[in-house]
Write a structure and sequence with these properties.
Blueprint: H1 3-28, E1 35-40, H2 47-63, E2 66-71, H3 78-85, E3 93-98, H4 99-104, H5 115-118, E4 119-135, H6 143-152, E5 158-161, H7 167-179, E6 184-187, H8 191-200, E7 205-209, H9 210-219, E8 222-227, E9 253-261, H10 266-280, H11 283-291, H12 301-322
Helix pairs in contact: 2-10, 7-12
């Protein structure tokens, strides 16, 4: 080999080595926990639990660790939210939380910890409107018919929610306030149990996301009357919004995101953010979220934190306007 050819070969080898070094280093950088506990602060069956199980396999694969979904329901998500808030900030425990536990409950409960201070946002996962639905045996097909029916029998009808202070609860209280309806609120330990009892006919009316009720709409057990989005849902294009049904300004969305204890080191938060970004952009995951009616969400920790700060006064005002209390 002449000197010129040797030099070219050596430079090429050096260039290849430099290009591969960061990749090799990244691949060798193991996540600090053999197991990541992903806490869903509700029982199985609700939207939060469904989303946790959608993202956990991808996170497990990308982090190279086992991701366990741990359902810690109760107290309108306060139990699971506080559990993660008090966990060791080592990246081994995370919360799939929502607006109920993060920004709403602080206006209804005497919390031991303020979730907006005790938790660090990693990334928003989904944001979906609610749907107003009834057991299919109820003889109503529109919101107007539902209003007329409940007005004709004050105190006879009840509506279910996954817990006091949930967006589903607040939506029900706003509906009552707007039309001076006398309906009884029946709180459950999560949206899953609430949904089960509406299907069974124990409680005839509820609000929920399309995520959890879509299979039951197809089965004919439930009937959707309206959605709470600013515009019609892509997954339910024939269902009017509450605004279209005579309730101007009635727009409520339920958002969900990943959180870790507040003192978790920034590099771990960035690592989780990067891996979750990758998971959420995988075609099958993106398709599932789209099918659930999720709109645009905030992709960086800073964007998510700014969004939460903006949401706090909105939900505080909605709690006061609705007159909602802890049942």
């Amino acid at each position: 080999m002449n000197c010129k050819m040797y030099l070219v070969t050596a430079l090429a080898a050096a260039t290849l080595a430099c290009a591969l070094t960061p990749v090799a280093a990244a691949a060798a950088e193991a996540y600090p926990c053999p197991t990541l506990r992903l806490v869903s602060p509700y029982p199985p069956g609700g939207t939060t639990d469904i989303l946790a199980r959608i993202v956990s396999p991808g996170l497990s694969k990308r982090l190279g660790v086992t991701v366990i979904v741990d359902n810690k329901g109760g107290a309108s998500s306060n139990i699971g939210t506080e559990f993660v808030s008090r966990a060791k900030p080592d990246g081994c425990t995370a919360l799939l939380g929502n607006n109920t536990g993060i920004v709403i409950n602080r206006n209804l409960y005497k919390l031991k910890l303020d979730p907006t201070q005790a938790l660090a946002p990693v990334r928003e996962v989904a944001s979906v409107p609610l749907v107003l639905y009834v057991n299919a045996s109820l003889p109503v097909k529109t919101v107007g018919q539902l209003v007329d029916m409940t007005k004709a029998a004050p105190g006879k009808y009840s509506y279910a929610s996954g817990g006091s202070g949930s967006p589903q609860h607040l939506a029900g209280e706003m509906l009552k306030l707007e039309r001076q309806l006398d309906m009884v609120h029946v709180p459950y330990r999560g949206q899953g149990p609430a949904l089960s009892d509406v299907i069974a006919g124990q409680v005839p009316i509820a609000f929920e996301t399309t995520t959890a009720i879509a299979p039951h709409i197809k089965s004919g057990k439930l009937r959707v009357l309206a959605t709470t989005g600013a515009k019609r849902s892509k997954t339910l294009p024939d269902v009017p919004t509450l605004q279209e049904s005579g309730f101007p300004g009635f727009v409520i969305e339920n958002w969900y995101g990943l959180f870790v204890p507040a003192e978790t080191p920034a590099p771990l938060i960035q690592r989780l953010n990067a891996e979750l970004n990758a998971v959420l952009t995988e075609p099958d995951i993106a398709s599932k979220l789209s099918d659930l009616g999720s709109g645009d969400v905030h992709g960086t920790p800073a964007q998510f934190r700014a969004f939460i700060t903006k949401e706090m006064p909105y939900w505080e005002s909605l709690v006061k306007r609705s007159g909602a209390t802890v049942d």
